[in-house]
Amino acid sequence: STGARQGRAAAGTAAFFAEVVGTFMLVFAGTAAVLATQRLDPSEGFGVVDDVAIALAFAFGILAAVYTVAEISGAHINPAVTIALAAVGRFPWRVVPAYVLAQLIGGLLAGLMNWLMFGDSARELALGGTQPGEGVSWWTALATEIVITAVLLVVVMATAVFERAPGAGTVSGLAIGLWVGAAVLLALPVSGASLNPARTLGPDIIAWSFPSWWIYVVGPVVGAIAGAALWTLLLERGDKQ
Fold first, then answer.
1. Does residue 51 contact residue 165 with C-beta atoms inside 8 Å?
2. In whole angstroms, how far apart are CA 97 and each of 53, 103, 114, 142?
3. Helix, strand, or coil here: 12?
């Protein structure tokens, strides 16, 4: 989920495939970890150790993805990030459909790989997809997704987009990975901690299971736009002082 060397992000074939690869890396790392923890310890559900392992997998996956494809596509690897950057004028709208398509393809490929690795039984867990925790209301899950994705975009804007950020090229992947890991750890039992429509829809479509899927489209997109807009407003206010 990440943002952008937006000035260098291209609309060409290389950028398209970079977004496919980057999104695959992120979604596969995290969702396969969900399924692997259940395979290793199927009797007790998700314990604390499992939650930590899943959070680390997402953090490491996004860190590796950012460093792998950032110089080619800007490493959005998240439709919510792409839409939010376009909404605040940091990315061209004309390129948004291609990026979103690439990201969804990456998510679908991750779902397919999970199915290949873990078999039909993994479809009972939507191939690592997301859903609200037991007893959690839809509005609580939605609010959680909005907030954690808003913070993600603040981190993205501060480290990867904001031109005056010190060492932006080297710190963005680490900062984004740290927040994603923290967000997954704190929100996993509440909303499933998606932050990314492609991370949820890819496995959902392959599993053909759609538990509360709209939460993971609306929540991240609304949160991402809010976070990017908030940072932009603060930045503009700071420039005027």
1. no
2. 33, 10, 26, 24
3. coil
Number of H helices, E strands in the chain: 8, 0
C-beta separation of 152 from 1 below 8 A: yes
Q: Which residue in this structure is represented by tokens 């950032």?
A: 70
pLDDT digits (tens, 9 = 90+) for 105-146: 999 999 999 999 999 989 888 899 999 999 999 999 999 999
Contact 3, 66 (CB under 8 A): no
**pTM summary value:** 0.89
Contact (Cβ atoms closer than 8 angstroms) between residue 215 and residue 142: yes
User: Residue 235 CB: number of other CB atoms within 10 A?
Assistant: 17
In the numeric block, the tokens 């963005």 are attached to: 172
Q: How many CB atoms lie within 10 A of CB 112?
A: 17
Give the separation between CA 105 and CA 17, rounded to whole angstroms.
10
Residue 208 burial (CB < 10 Å; 0-12/13-18/19+)?
Answer: exposed
Checking if the pLDDT of 7 tops 60, the result is: no
| Segment 49-86, tens digit of pLDDT | 889 999 999 999 999 999 999 989 999 999 999 999 99
